[in-house]
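Hi there,

I know you've been waiting on this one. I reran it after we fixed the sequence typo, so this is the corrected version. Both the input and the resulting structure follow.
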Amino acid sequence: MLLKKISTWGTAALAGAIVLAACERDYESVQVNNTQLGDRAYLKIINSTINSARNFISIDGARLNGAALLYSNTSAFSVSLFPQQNSGAYAAVRSGTVRLVMADTLTTSTQPAYNQSVTLNPNTYYTLFSYDTVNAAKYLLIQDNFPSFFSVDTTAAIRFANFMHAPAAANAPNVDFVSARMGLLASNVPLTGVTPFNGRFRANITDTLFVRPTGTSTNLYNFTINALPRRSYTIVWRGRFTNTTAYNASTNGWGRHFQIVTHDVTR
């Protein structure tokens, strides 16, 4: 299997450190950006299903991952990604109509599996998001449409995904994503919503991003980011939503956090 190189930040590592893990022997790393590999499609999986573990991915019965994919609410976000060995690489996989499966292989597992016949187009990028809780896991497969950049561009692209889990007693609101420097970036993003990439995000400057209930100034969470030019970022709002007040680690625990995935794919 071949990998497209990207990198990932967790919220505990937002100072700009790229989290990289060692490649396993049955994968070959591709170090060149924007290299098209014939008729291959490119697949990435982000696991936001709370308490999930032992997940394996296969296409037409052939297993893709060596180490199991699981949910992490710590800075070790790479274990929530496939492929893991490069902390968020795209895997170059067979294109065409294939049977894509993501499942917990334990026979007593209560996690619903993703088991679908899907059409993956050549030279096209896809992300499969899993979300909710292990007993009610749900999935969303989308095509990743990256913006085009000129070599002189000094901006980055950013999109937002809202996969927060909301227990019945704490209905999570639609949210706005707001930049301290640029103002409103995305408005009224619903649960399971994924916005298109916005290719005009300011790069090479530290910015603070806030997530707020739509139409309010209440900060549910905030973090800093220093984007690189001509790179595309997915910011996943994930975890367990506990209440509508500002996030407090002592009362909300691990309930809310961001995962930031940097797609090192230039156009």
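Quick highlight: DSSP finds one helix and 20 strands in the chain.

Best,
R. S.
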